[in-house]
Design a protein that fits this description.
Elements: H1 8-35, H2 68-82, H3 99-110
């Protein structure tokens, strides 16, 4: 077996050279793929000045009822019924969330605390 080094600094330097060398090669490869990307949309030729059509009648935006007071009252009643009202400082009604956020909230409520 050939010479083996036990110097941790030399091992770290060799590992860093390998890691950053691979990252540089991957970066160059990504730029090459980006330049010859067959899925990139081609720029459409610009047409002459478009003819302005008569503006269509704008539909009225649907009226959304503000139920935040009712929701806050329901939350306050639920907290009071559980007997934990001394720990609640504020209630914030979250905007409609994505499925990721809903899943994270559900998991946070079902996972047992570590302490």
């Amino acid at each position: 077996m050939g010479p083996v080094t036990n110097n941790p600094f030399l091992i770290a330097i060799i590992n860093m050279i390998v890691v950053f060398g691979v990252l540089i090669v991957l970066g160059v490869l990504m730029h090459l793929i980006e330049m010859v990307d067959p899925t990139k949309k081609k720029a459409a030729p610009k047409a002459a000045a478009p003819v302005a059509a008569a503006p269509a009648a704008v539909a009225a935006a649907p009226v959304v009822e503000d139920k935040s007071e009712e929701i806050a009252a329901v939350i306050a009643a639920a907290v009071a019924a559980c007997g934990g009202s001394e720990n609640v400082v504020a209630v914030r009604i979250a905007a409609p969330a994505t499925s990721w956020a809903v899943g994270a909230r559900a998991e946070a409520q079902t996972v047992q605390p570590f302490c």
